[in-house]
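Anyone able to model this chain together with zinc ion?
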Amino acid sequence: MSGGQIPAYVDARKAFVQETELQGAVDLERLPRFAATLASDEADVAVSLRFAKADNGQRTISGHLRVATEVSCQRCLEPMPVAWEDDIALVLLEDESLATRLEPEWDPWVWTEPKLMLAELVEEQLLLSMPVVSYHTDQECADKLGYVPAADTGSEAPKAQKESPFAVLKALKKNDSND
Ligand SMILES: [Zn+2]
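re: yes, here you go
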């Protein structure tokens, strides 16, 4: 994706009337809550956003996000690459109680400041769209834990070859708690 960072904010009084459109990257430093969920200090985040006013007066923000980064595998806890994308379909609301009136295809974004802080908007969408759980394949988890399948076992191989990756993981956990 070419182009620079999306701006820090757009002016709510202008963006919807002028139908502002923008696209660009968002550095991880601008997304601290999202960054805290990752197993990497790098992430490629690219977004496009379009501000518009619907016929019914609703102020809409539609667009798309794309991200590639690493999260912790929930089985072996080692980093694993993940990538996903998602559509953005938000209606700007000043009061959460108005959310019940939205059409199902729209999600509320409750925001009352005149400056719409874009990194916060993107961060919320990233957190909502990211995979709930991520696992390596069985073999990848085994590899990460240093488990050597029997077929590859040379004379210097570790002794764990008969154990399942789960047994190895259990053993590792036991060792950790003994420290
Ligand atoms: Zn794993």
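Residues 138-178 form one domain.
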